[in-house]
Design a protein that fits this description.
This protein is an alpha/beta fold. Helix content is 44%, strand content 19%. The chain has helices spanning 25-32, 46-60, 79-91, 106-118, 132-138, 176-193, 195-203, 207-228, 243-252, 260-277, 285-295, 306-314, 345-348; strands at 3-7, 13-17, 38-43, 67-70, 99-104, 124-129, 143-148, 151-158, 163-166, 323-331, 334-341. Strands 1-2-9-6-5-3-4 form a 7-stranded mixed sheet, with helices on both faces. Strands 7-8 form a two-stranded antiparallel ribbon. α5 packs parallel to α6, α6 packs across α7 and α10 (260-277) runs antiparallel to α11 (285-295). The model has no long low-confidence stretch (mean pLDDT 94). The chain binds nicotinamide-adenine-dinucleotide. Nicotinamide-adenine-dinucleotide is lined by residues 43, 45-46, 49, 72-74, 77, 104-108, 110, 130-131, 133-134, 137-138, 141, 143, 152-153, 170-171, 173-174, 178, 181, 260.
Length: 353
Amino acid sequence: MADIIPVKTGRAYDIHLGRGILVETGRLAADVARTRKAVIVTDTHVGPLYGTQVKASLEAAGFDAPLYAFEAGEASKNMQTLQALYRFFAQSDLTRADLVVALGGGVVGDAAGFAAATYMRGVDFIQVPTTLLAQVDSSVGGKTAVDLPEGKNLAGAFWQPRLVICDPDVLDTLDAENFACGMGEVVKHACIRSKALYDRLLACTDIRAELSAIIADNVRIKRDVVEHDEREKGERMLLNFGHTLGHGIEKCLHYTGISHGAAVAAGMHLITLHAERNGLTPPGTAARIGVLLDKYGLSADSPLPLADVVHAALNDKKRAGGNLHLVLLKDIGDAFIHTLPVADLPAFFGLGA
Ligand code: NAD
């Protein structure tokens, strides 16, 4: 039985979540489509695994469904891929009334979503997320983007999908590192919004058996946050818990050798340790986060010296004016935004000015 989770953003849509639902892509797409043309965008890992099924499902529902697969990996989330997508859309005679189907992880969702947002000033798109990270996080909320040589996600748009089709069964083929990466976002959601989810993850003895329910919990948490703050003016910033220092770590390592999830995991732990030191978070909270990270295959320890991470984080794009917004925890399940002048940051981290 599929779970239907409605999202009431400016443009409302439903998230259909259920095991085996991938083969229903055509039927579900037909319910929201205005025409019977849908371009499938995927990558070179996901295409061979699930492209045929999705294409067949769309064709069985009467769609003409050409498929484009770009090289898998973050390095493809760039302007060259965007141009290749635009050109494939044009060669496929895609019109503004047609659909783009993003079949893949966060990279495919972000790049295909941005291509859809901008091609002919906006084409409808459907997200079919195939990584845990994409299912619990990136496919919900309508952020799309590509990277520039100067930084990640610098060119992008808010563009809500018409529909999200989330099938936990596709995670069977996901490798352990990418699974752990998604668990980093799951732990983040528990930390910022749900003590119940934290307790559930702590007690869980077979994550695969509970996956559908855990994904549903996470989708609802992210949905609730983005419904209140679609354009990241306030509450949505809570989703950046661990990201300021996490981005600092990724930046120092030039985005190689560490997954985004691992960097965010270390970032959540590190910021919480220092929030404890500043009396803003109850003692022991970082240790409680660490226990969960460890359980789900992520290290809580920063691979780099604190000063380097903080220095890199200072250049992070989330810095607004002379102030930095840090997401901290009042407790597990209860996050808040602590704004402090950039000049006070070294003291916050116990570093010399
Ligand atoms: P990804 O899309 O690169 O996927 C990771 C790897 O797993 C890739 O090699 C991919 O081909 C492979 N893969 C995907 N599904 C698979 C499956 N079912 N079986 C086997 N292999 C599979 O990375 P990701 O972690 O999904 O996403 C990271 C991206 O998401 C980053 O670019 C990040 O900026 C973005 N992101 C966006 C948002 C948002 O709100 N839009 C939020 C968080 C992250």
